[in-house]
Amino acid sequence: MLTITVHPHDERLWLGEHPLAHTSVARPEQGAGDIEGAQAQQRESRLLYHQWRMYQATAPLVINTHATGTGKTLGALLRLLARVRQIGPDQLTPRQGDTLFIAPTNELIEQHVRTASEFCQRYGLPYRVVPVTRAHLQRRWQELAPEERTRRGRFLRQLLSDPATALQETVSTAQATIFVTNPDIFYYILTACYNRFDRGPLLVEVLRDFSLVIIDEVHYYSPRQLAAFLFFLKLSAAWGYLSGPDSPRQICLLTATPSLPMRRYLERLGIETEWIEPQDPVPEVWADKVKSVRALTPVELEIYSTEELTKDLHGQRQSGDALLCLVQRLWPTLRQLLESQPADGFPVEGAILSNSLRTINLIYGELRARWPAASERVGRITGPQRSQAREQARERQLILATPTVDIGYNFERTRPGQGQPGQDLPTSAVRKPRPSLDFLLFDARSGDELLQRLGRVGRVLALAAGEHCGPCRAWVVVDQESYRWFESYHGTTIDRGALAKLAARMPARQDLTAYVRSGVIGEFFRSIGLIGQGMADEELPLLDSFLQDLQQLFAGEQEQHQRPWSYRRIREVLRRYEERARSYGGFSHIPAIAFERFAALLDGQQPDPHDPAISYLKAFEERLLSIMQHRYERPRSSQEAVLWLKQDLSQYYTERSRWNFREGFETPQVQVFDPQHLLADEDVTHYDLFHILRSYEATFFPTEEEWRRACFPEGSRQHTNLLGNQQEEQVPARDEEVILFCRLQALRKQPGQVGLRLDVPEQSRAEWEEQWAYRVTALWGLRPQLINDDTGLPACVGSCFQERFVPVFVAAEESSTAAWLLSLRQKARFFPVALHISFADRTARYRAVLGPLAWQLAAEIPRWVFERDRRQGQQGESEPFFF
């Protein structure tokens, strides 16, 4: 264990003209629900220098890189205020004022909606604030009368273009709208992923109608995800929306830990940019208008390695969870902190943050077993929790959370009626005179995670006497290699700049840039195709010029080695994809019976007109004619025709997998009955299959009806809510993505290993590898299995995505490519899945990467490694390549 004291961090307070002075609008007397607003108003009364700079910034692109917890969000809202004042509140129109605010997590979206609503109300800005997430869109859509429910994409179009009508507002004073959304929806609009009727109008809405775009926590995204924002910036500039100080659009990027590759991409954009950074000197003319103010208290930091925490008394490595081991080791200290009674009358409050949902739930179970008060004082903020449970959890003394609170989340609790004994303070004035978090435990796999999470503790910027607050405490778990970087600083005191340099030596959160240089441009082909369709022929050279600039932005120095893209070439790629989409686009899965019936049809057996597989047969017949024309030959048998068809389907689903904002494979969703609250605080929730298989002993049911009969024999049940009251609870309706049902029995003591199995009786290993291995493809027939578990999986689980084409990159376990994959694990933070394949001639083991991440990892591995393994596969031999 290492101990390091981290210096406090000061910001620069602005003493000059205050843009918020005397602009607050009179409001009714505040109640308990307005505590956050009162606290926000107190924070806003102390304006920081970087926030003042945001208010004054006129460049088309503004990038604020100040530290976590120093008010970058308020700075962005001040930029909004400045634009409104420049136009005039009475002259504001949707085209001039509509704002898009993008935040990476739904928890942060809810926080930004509250903050922006309160800000606009307090300062008289004529805005409505609308959250735009999948859950909100679904709820709004369901509130419509049945005859008014059309396509969801059409409803989103109406919401963006005419929110008053979409939200059924009868009376509204709003003249413009702040739409707060997640990057997924933005990405799917920008890459034209909605249906053919809505994708064009939605793309136009995003490209034309937002005068201010705020992208929060930009560092959180992978290079591939960042590319979508770069495309939007480049397109906005090319179409004249970012033309200078008077440009119709301004874009604000907020990030505390910008990576070096991100900086390089942004600098290559060629857009006038104002960087607002902590190290920027104050101009001499403003020197007397700035003074230091405490932002973060000192932190007494203890650093542990995973190796030391998971060794037993004899020094043997145990397969335990490191952060759980740390909680167990520190529990006497933590309990003493939690049960202490400070003189100011406010409790000691803390949080435990982890990348792993399993770890958080293990710790939650450990605390409930050790501490009788845990049920009332400990709360979870995790993905499976519903919004009401999250709201209740954020008020608990000790919060356990996954990365949903990693970025920008405010841990401030409301405190109605609380304060010093004998004081009679109004609810709105009650505020803890110490940081909202007094202590923090967390794990960190990358340098930006360490800095971001450490920045959650010791925040005192909003406190008038923040410089008098004592040090907070933090404990962090890092890997052994990262631990060594800190060893020479044991027992010392360092400033946060030195800590940031040490953290920069840790692995990056995700640093896969090869795909951005070589292939990410393909994700924007559909958008480019739509833009080209709306241009006259004589304007198309402008589009080709834009494509060359875009390719140079992504590829950098490697651009000269790549064949340039043109609109004509992109249209040909899209034409081939759209041909397949017309045949296959309506199928989410392909049942085995469809291939069997098609082979029978080719052998002369006519299908029954009422056969459920008839739609597949029509699509297959149409595509086979196209395949034959492309191949200039006919299949020698029905089985060969089916193989051709599977290859064509695989190519379609492989290309389609590019258009998915999330990196990983989206496993089937399971509706979970959880009366012990092992996963979440509700009795019924839903979550992904692989997590359930790895983390829980569970009973699965083949149908929803059997699940309901077994878990809810009376149709409803008595439920003890979080306040300890009995209430009747109806069984929640099934989520539309759910395809499996289970009841959780217990948390596994050791995580299960989930693998995959594939049967290929019609091909030898060499034949199969020639067609499917060492490239990004999509495989049909995959079945999940638990490795080293003799009990096996129920049939309903084993076949749950057997009929889907799953995007995948596969390499033989003993190959050089697999060795490269293993070397990339820490860099990309992924775990290749074990794949066992039975061929006609033998069985073999492989490593597989599922989902869109397959594209990125394949781009990182040199081509010569693939070719070497392919050649050796044909020879039936392979030598591992060691690192």
Question: What does this molecule look like?
Answer:
The chain is built from 35 helices and 29 strands. The strands form six sheets. An eight-stranded mixed beta sheet has the order 13-14-12-15-16-11-1-17, with helices on both faces. The chain has a seven-stranded parallel beta sheet with strand order 5-6-4-7-8-3-9. α22 packs across α24 (567-584). The protein has 883 residues and is an alpha/beta fold.
Task: Count the beta strands.
Answer: 29
Low-confidence stretches: 25-36, 417-429, 877-883
- Beta fraction: 15-25%
Class derived from helix and strand content:
alpha/beta
Helical residue percent? 25-40%
Query: Strands across the major sheet, in which order?
Result: 13-14-12-15-16-11-1-17
Brief synopsis:
This protein has 883 residues and is α/β, with parallel strands linked by helices.
Which descriptors would you attach to this protein?
8-stranded mixed sheet, 883 residues, 7-stranded parallel sheet, disordered C terminus, alpha/beta, globular, 29 strands, 35 helices
Give the topology.
Elements: E1 2-6, E2 9-14, H1 35-44, H2 49-56, E3 61-64, H3 72-87, H4 94-97, E4 99-102, H5 106-122, E5 127-132, H6 134-143, H7 152-161, H8 163-166, E6 176-181, H9 183-190, H10 199-208, E7 212-215, H11 223-238, E8 250-254, H12 260-267, E9 273-276, E10 290-296, E11 299-305, H13 306-309, H14 322-339, E12 350-353, H15 357-370, H16 374-377, E13 378-381, H17 387-393, E14 398-401, E15 439-443, H18 447-454, E16 472-478, H19 480-486, E17 493-494, H20 496-503, H21 514-518, H22 525-533, H23 540-555, H24 567-584, H25 592-602, H26 614-631, H27 638-656, E18 669-673, E19 684-688, H28 689-695, E20 696-701, H29 704-711, E21 716-720, E22 726-730, E23 738-747, E24 753-760, H30 765-772, E25 776-780, E26 783-787, H31 795-798, E27 805-812, H32 816-823, H33 825-828, E28 833-839, E29 843-850, H34 853-860, H35 863-875
Parallel strand pairs: 1-17, 3-8, 3-9, 4-6, 4-7, 5-6, 7-8, 11-16, 12-14, 12-15, 13-14, 15-16, 18-23, 24-28
Antiparallel strand pairs: 1-11, 2-10, 18-19, 20-23, 21-22, 24-26, 25-27, 27-29, 28-29
Helix pairs in contact: 1-5, 2-3, 7-10, 14-15, 18-20, 22-24, 24-27, 25-26, 25-27, 26-27, 30-35
